[in-house]
Amino acid sequence: MSDSSSSDGEDKNQFLTNRKKTLTKKKTVAEAVEEEVEDVEEEKTFAELGVSQPLCDACHRLGWVKPSKIQQAALPHALQGKDVIGLAETGSGKTGAFAIPVLQSLLDHPQAFFCLVLTPTRELAFQIGQQFEALGSGIGLIVAVIVGGVDMAAQAMALARRPHIIVATPGRLVDHLENTKGFNLKALKFLIMDEADRILNMDFEVELDKILKVIPRERRTYLFSATMTKKVSKLERASLRDPARVSISTRYKTVDNLKQHYIFVPNKYKETYLVYLLNEHAGNSAIVFCATCATTMQVAVMLRQLGMQAVPLHGQMSQEKRLGSLNKFKSKAREILVCTDVAARGLDIPHVDMVINYDMPSQSKDYVHRVGRTARAGRSGLAITVVTQYDVEAYQKIEANLGKKLDEYKCVENEVMVLVERTQEAMENAKIEMKEMDEKRKSGKKRRQNDDFGDTEESSGRFKMGIRSMGGSGKGGSGGGGRGGKKKMRK
Amino acid sequence: MAKRKLKSSEFEATTSEKIAKKIDHFSDFWNQKVEGVESAQLEDTRARTKSSQKVELPGIGASSIYKGVQDFPSFTDASDLSGLGWNEGLLENMTSLLEETEVDEKNEQQVESERQTILKLTAEYRDLLAISNDQDGYRSIYCAHIIQHLIRNKNLIIGNKRKLEIASTKEEGADEETIESCRDSGFVRPIVLILCPFKKDAYDIINRLRRIIHGDDGSGEVWNKNRFEEEYSGPTELPPTRADFPDDHKELLLGNNDDAFRIGIALSKKVLKLYEKFEKADILVCSPLGLRMILNGDDGNEAHLISSINITVVDRTDIMIQQNWENVQLIFSHLHSQPSKIDTDISRVRKLYLDGHSKHFSQLLMFSRYSHELFTSLMLQSSQNHRGLVVSNPKKSGTLTDIEIPLCQELHKFEVKDPNETSDLRFKYFVDKIIPTLVPRTLIVIPSYFDFVRVRNHLKKAEESFVMCHEYANRAKVDRAREMFYHERKSYLVVTERWYFFNRRQLTGVHRVIFYQLPSHPLFYSEFINMSDADTSQRFLAILLLCKYDRMRLENTFGTEMAAAVMANKQTVQAIVSQ
């Protein structure tokens, strides 16, 4: 977990203005207590915040010297036994802020099925599960991660061990609640929602209702997110009691060392510009966000056709492949991750240098989450949003929400246009390949062999040379080791 | 933190129980602590073999004891049945079953002590490979043990259920310790697996189970009894034409000889439910083939059904080796695997199953009329019971006395270093040394079908004049082959052991016999030799290929002492001439 990266002074100001906003808008769920983070200078240690000795030791072992800001703010309330609504970016120590109070309470009253953490994505669930395990390794903590795309029987076995902590995505958890005999959450003491606004959204409505029905009302609830919904009705569903609201960053705030640009392009040449941008910044690791699973796949295939090391990540891939893609990208074996909003939140990959919004984010909140994937932990980063003639209105909304105008990304049109032919050819090929994959999938049985695009790398070398030679004089070496190497031939 | 007090609380329970009841193998068996270190020890077959002890056990003779997690006290008197801690009615029923079989006067002592030893080892939940001809005896014993285990298990589950119900009526619901202490089941319901070769064996075993539960008075309910009678019984008398067969073959022909079956049995209170669905059955009685078909075969993919077996019995293993040993091996490879689907109350599943230690809490009993290297190796591989393993290898007298004609036996010994090379070297020796000396009217006996195919291909290539009898040839073909051999239109006759085992037909026109390897059935060596049609004035010649890995077969046929002498002899070719 990395430290909070926002600077203090500005933070305070932003917070105060934000506070006014929330105060006026709040129709009060309960009488929410506002946290004062004014005197941040006097930082307390974990012990001073009331964290018990075994957990302090665990924190030290993990290299957490001082509590991060969100922890400073949230821990006192949480340790007093209050419900908490926490607003903080990922990477700011959020997991610690809710894990520590849970574990402290668990130490006092050891019990199975003690705490449930709900997250919107599987990747996030694994990440949180690992952190719980790391914190609890010295005290015999049992954690189960229950997400979709993994064998039900193995998970049932994990649940049979009667874990203390369950980290789950809502869908699969409901599946187990309904189908796994002898598993219930009647004794649950803690409910935590990470990326709470997304969980409280419509997407998980049915599942969440089912879960809320089977867990006791007598419990503590923490909501954490980088952005939080204002809608009272939504928060009511989480049935918080007298929550403390703590916040260390403002809504829609982006980090300073992040350079944000937009690039205005004709829709017709959208792919070409993407290729151009990636080529300009070859050698850096980049995330490309697309709107749909299909586009994601298409763009990834196209980039590979052009000899770029791209891996896809979207909701229609199996869990194994998703983890596989993510790990390849994390371990820097691949430079480009093409994904949907599934990867927009929470993922903590420090080395991302660039985020490209290939498709415009549908909400301004999503924009903040997406560009938050780069410029992490004090590094600098670059975010470029591709704006076509159809996206102007949506883009303006985002700018309005951000409260500032972004600079246009400068590029030489002629250089881009050189790429048009190749890109379009690659796009055609990608479409054909996608179609083939679809048909094979439908044709059934041989599915397993053919649908693993995530692993099969088929890149045609003929484009490679061309692109590289055009990629600007000084960047010839960017392709470096093994780009476009044919690892496996299909069939 | 939440160091659950499971271990200690259970431990306390057992010590207090021990005071109340002197011996309780059931609880002791389950309460044994097996964790990483112990598990690794049990899996280390090589080290266990090294540290095994050779002991003379009453009744079953020379035996090797492979240690489990803890030591057992040295062997004490086993005649006192009350020392088992078993249900009395059950003991009574078992005793009356045991008394039923007629025993020769002179064998009585021997049979009695054999039964006592088997009973003691079985009741102690030790793994056992027993060489025994007393089928009625050992069957009654293991059936009683199974029922005893089932009843204890049922009572435990019912007791825990009640405990949980009472606890859940309390205000705060059942507490952690109660829930943890009520872990009492596996992933699936079946906990006993009995493998036997034919439906007639299943018929006999199930009838024994019934009589042990219900006693002899015929009271007690059995579900689907008529269907069972119809499908599993068979003729009890042979047609008179078969009267000249050896006894063991007559026995093979009697009764229902179907070898593809599986039946689930559930026990509830006093009702014995036959044909219960496997998911709801306590005992599975199957032939290797029948079970294999649902593991990953034509009839399903249900390996999870044998993931939580507590007691596995392999009955009449010597017949299974004549059926298809691969099926048995496949079953053992699936036994205790982690299930692919779970449909049970997961809060009641024992920790040991979650930890993958199922194989350490499972008793394996194997019974055979004679020993075989494959049985021992399967036992050593699969037996990981924390209570250890006993392999009996009694002294044998051999079957050479059955030979009725004067003969000269030539034993050819070839050197083998690596057991995996045995079959290659045997073939090489046969081709180099034996084939050049072949004379017409020679019978070549090849026990394994794989070896048979190899030799056949070689003979075909060399364009030798030969015919074959093997298990895949139809009757007409076999008849023709025998006739051609008899009239000397072809010089050699090649037969496999399995063909002979299922047909037992006299071969005619044999002047010399070559054993490519000793048959695993101890009687066959002398039976083949007795087929001789040669002039009585001449000595009949039998040639046998041997290597050091054939020791067990050699003991079965030649007797323990003579086998040792043959093996100790350094000469490549030894001749034994009879008067």
From TrEMBL, chain A:
UniProt feature coiled coil, ranges: 23-50
Pfam families for this protein: DEAD (PF00270), Helicase_C (PF00271)
Enzymatic class: hydrolase
Family stated for the protein in its record: Belongs to the DEAD box helicase family. DDX47/RRP3 subfamily.
Keywords: ATP-binding, Coiled coil, Helicase, Hydrolase, Nucleotide-binding, Nucleus, RNA-binding
Helicase C-terminal domain span: 257-417
CDD domains, sorted: DEADc_DDX47, SF2_C_DEAD
Annotated organism of origin: Caenorhabditis brenneri
Localization annotation: Nucleus
Motif (Q motif): 44-72
Keyword flag Metal-binding: no
Superkingdom of this protein's organism: Eukaryota
Annotated segments matching region Disordered: 1-20, 433-491
One term under GO cellular component: P granule
InterPro entries: DDX47/Rrp3_DEADc, DEAD/DEAH_box_helicase_dom, DEAD_box_RNA_helicase, Helicase_ATP-bd, Helicase_C-like, P-loop_NTPase, RNA-helicase_DEAD-box_CS, RNA_helicase_DEAD_Q_motif
SMART domains, A to Z: DEXDc (SM00487), HELICc (SM00490)
Residues annotated as domain Helicase ATP-binding: 75-246
Name the UniProt record assigns to this protein: RNA helicase
TrEMBL record, chain B:
GO biological process: maturation of SSU-rRNA from tricistronic rRNA transcript (SSU-rRNA, 5.8S rRNA, LSU-rRNA)
Record Pfam families: Utp25_C, UTP25_NTPase-like
Residues in UTP25 NTP hydrolase-like domain copies: 126-390
UniProt entry keywords in alphabetical sequence: Nucleus
Molecular function (Gene Ontology), one example: rRNA binding
Record GO cellular component, one term: small-subunit processome
Domain of life: Eukaryota
Cited InterPro entries: P-loop_NTPase, UTP25, UTP25_C, UTP25_NTPase-like
Subcellular localization: Nucleus, Nucleolus
Residue intervals of the UTP25 C-terminal domain: 400-572
Family: Belongs to the UTP25 family.
The protein, known as: U3 small nucleolar RNA-associated protein 25 homolog
Organism: Caenorhabditis brenneri (Nematode worm)
Organism classification: Eukaryota, Metazoa, Ecdysozoa, Nematoda, Chromadorea
